Amino acid sequence: MLEPSIVKDEDVEQLIKDVYQSYGYDFSLYSRASFKRRINRICLIDKFTSFAELRYTVLNDPDYLKHFIEEITVNVTEMFRDPYFFKALRDNILPQLGTYPLIRIWVAGCSTGEEAYSMAILLKEANLYHKSLIYATDINPSVLETARAGVFPLQQMKLYSENYILSGGKKDFSDYYTANYDSARFDKSLQQKLILSTHNLVSDSSFNSFQLIICRNVLIYFDRLLQERVFQLFDDSLENLGYLALGSKETLRFSNLSKYYHQADDQKIWKKLDLH
């Protein structure tokens, strides 16, 4: 099995170049430390005996490529993750959005969709779901399949239920899903206003105008240059007086765009000022 230290910096550069030239996935501005950690993890899990073997497999096996992209891009997610963030949305942001005739929300880098389903539940409980659209996007088509199915491991429901209650939820969380053996299938009504599609934050452009964009714990994998590019994409996609929600380790503070935003609360939610 390949020892983690065998993956050298130049190997990482070569692989980034190969994947871009062969498939068009551009990881050139991803944080190198993060990318290298994930390569090491892939090598250990999939028991490659050399870096050359990994590289050969990525370039010659399209099925393996899907798995590789998934491992590189997948973000750990859960329903109502960081419940106080969702409480801030519930108490402070949704009442503002409720004044719009149509509410458009973009969950960027949605992974397997738990955050988008959490958002659907919040909107239902605020009686705003009927006039909302949730666009949930990810670079990785296979995680979107999980999101589309709306089926998650039953063992996660205890944690999700606790998160939901801490977020200010008043119902019984089990009202939203049907338990079946070891899985939980979420109610189809939560998908009625959910639009799932692939979107690459690195290379794709703005596709709509939103009042709320949620992108949490994705930008930590990008270098400063790419973060700035993604912030510009979000700015192009966000209406004046709209909200941008980031992860706990992410900030707009050092961005060129920071002067056009102010922090709406201490849960990493930024409001776009009506300046430009």
Order of strands, main sheet, comes to 6-2-1-7-8-10-9
The CA-CA distance between the termini, in Å, is 55 Å
Shape call: globular
Taken as a percent bin, the fraction of beta residues is 15-25%
The residue-averaged pLDDT reads 91
- Tell me about the biggest sheet? 7 strands, mixed
Report the count of strand segments.
10
Structural class, by secondary structure, is alpha/beta
CATH superfamily of the largest domain: Vaccinia Virus protein VP39
> If you compute it from the alpha carbons, what radius of gyration comes out, rounded to the nearest whole angstrom?
20 Å
Low-confidence stretches: none
Order of helices and strands: HHHHHEHEHEHEEEEHEEE
Could you name the CATH topology of the largest domain? Rossmann fold
Look at the structure and give the CATH class of the largest domain.
Alpha Beta
Number of domains: 2
Proportion in helices: 40-55%
Write the SSE topology.
Blueprint: H1 9-23, H2 32-45, H3 51-60, H4 62-73, H5 83-97, E1 103-108, H6 114-125, E2 132-138, H7 141-149, E3 151-153, H8 157-166, E4 177-180, E5 183-186, E6 194-198, E7 210-215, H9 224-237, E8 238-246, E9 261-265, E10 269-272
Parallel strand pairs: 1-2, 1-7, 2-6, 7-8
Antiparallel strand pairs: 3-5, 4-5, 8-10, 9-10
Helix pairs in contact: 1-3, 3-4, 5-6
What does this structure look like?
By secondary structure, the chain is an alpha/beta fold. The protein has two domains: 4-73, no CATH class; 83-272, Rossmann fold (3-Layer(aba) Sandwich). The protein contains nine helices and ten strands. It has helices spanning 9-23, 32-45, 51-60, 62-73, 83-97, 114-125, 141-149, 157-166, 224-237; strands at 103-108, 132-138, 151-153, 177-180, 183-186, 194-198, 210-215, 238-246, 261-265, 269-272. The strands form two sheets. Strands 6-2-1-7-8-10-9 form a seven-stranded mixed sheet. A three-stranded antiparallel sheet has the order 3-5-4. Helix 6 (114-125) links the parallel strand 1 (103-108) and strand 2. Helix 3 (51-60) packs across helix 4. The radius of gyration is 20 Å and the shape is globular. The mean pLDDT is 91. Pfam families: CheR, CheR_N. This is Protein-glutamate O-methyltransferase CheR. InterPro entries: Bact_Chemotaxis_MeTrfase, CheR_C, CheR_MeTrfase, CheR_N, SAM-dependent_MTases_sf. It comes from Chryseobacterium paridis.
